[in-house]
Amino acid sequence: MIVLLCTCMMALPSHAQENADLKGTACVPVRTVSEEELAFHDGERMDFILHYRWGRINTDVGTATVTLDSLTFNGQKAFKCTAAGKTKRFFDVFFKVRENFTSVFTREGLRPLKFTRDTYEGGYEARNTYMYMWDGPQTYIAADVYTSKLGQKSMELPLTPCTYDLPALFFFARNMDMDIVEPGKKYPMTFAIDDEVINVYFILYGRETIKVKGLGTVNTIKFAARLIAGEVFKGEEDMMIWVTDDDNRLPVYFEAPLLVGAAAGRLSGYEGLKHKFTSLVEQKR
Q1: Three-state SS for 3?
Q2: Full-model pTM
Q3: How many whole angstroms separate alpha carbon 133 and alpha carbon 112?
Q4: What is the C-alpha separation between 65 and 47, in angstroms, rounded?
Q5: How far apart are CA 16 and CA 18, in angstroms?
Q6: Strand (E) or helix (H) holding 110
Q7: Angle of helix 2-10 relative to helix 166-173, nearest 10 degrees?
Q8: Computed from CA positions of residues 157, 158, 164, 166, in that sequence, does the dihedral angle turn out positive or negative?
Q9: Residue 179: what pLDDT?
Q10: How confident is the model at residue 112 (pLDDT cuts 50, 70, 90)?
Q11: How is 133-165 classified by DSSP, letter by letter?
């Protein structure tokens, strides 16, 4: 579920040919990655509800929480993002999901330092540990990877200034400069997961006011993204993502096509925001 949540929050992977076309492209334009002017700060927490639709089934099936704390990592001031999610007990019988992600990245510049993933999705298991090796003649990710399909592997993955893990990519993307981003244009990002580094893109659609169940009426910015084809996702249709049209850039709603049915997620709670939630124009009572 956190893979779904993170991919939905982070603007996401294209097909192989589209990935190839984006290789060598620069990072997306951001306002700044200086700590004082970031869209967030430590102490932030976001809670999400995951919804599933298929035929007559139309129900909430799981929850997820994303928190941001601070720490010192190898002598550097850093943020620590923890993302955890699970299906409700009733739905564990059909497709049990347990996800735990941890990402450590610098407070100034948002450069990733360490990433761990522990995933169980309906019988599929994956565990990642990445160390980002920035110092030395060559940069690389020292990756220790296990999946139930590939087994255990230790490897070096390519690392560039535009390479992130999923949580770090999400926080980086929240600082996009909306005065520069052009509607309809493809903007690339890159993330590593399991034994791959994947080039991705997102497309800006524009501004839209939507009603989010349990939250209220929200002024948002709407994006489209592509999903990874595989065990869960179709990889053919665009996923839609709505983030707050204010300085927080919170993801408040997303819709994603699955191999069977469709998933949707919504922000259900939050605390510790750095900026006022000015895009919430009418709160649910």
Answers
A1: helix
A2: 0.85
A3: 10
A4: 5
A5: 5
A6: none
A7: 30
A8: negative
A9: 82
A10: very high
A11: E-SSSS-EEEEEEEETTTEEEEEEEE--TTEE-
How far apart CA 222 and CA 235 sit, in angstroms, is: 20
Instruction: Tell me which residue has tokens 């690389």.
Output: 140
Q: What is the pLDDT of residue 193?
A: 87
Contact criterion met (CB below 8 Å) for 167 and 6: yes
Rg (CA), the chain: 18
Q: Cα–Cα distance between 256 and 234 in angstroms, integer?
A: 9
Whole-number Cα distances in Å, 35 to 95, 96, 128, 175, 248: 40, 38, 28, 11, 14
Q: Which two tokens stand for residue 164?
A: 């992130």
pLDDT at 26 (0 to 100): 54
Pick left, alpha or beta for residue 19 (phi over 0 → left; psi -120 to 50 → alpha; otherwise beta).
Answer: alpha
pLDDT digits (tens, 9 = 90+) for 25-60: 357 788 888 899 999 999 999 999 999 888 888 899
pLDDT at 231: 46
**Closest C-alpha to 73, from 65, 61, 81:** 81
Residue 15 has pLDDT above 50, yes or no: no
Q: Which of 46, 113, 101, 45 is nearest to 77 (CA)?
A: 113
Structure tokens at 139: 């940069």
CA pair distance 133, 130, nearest whole angstrom: 9
- 26/29 Cα distance (integer angstroms): 9
DSSP conformational letter for 232: S
CA atoms within 13 A on the CB side of 106: 13
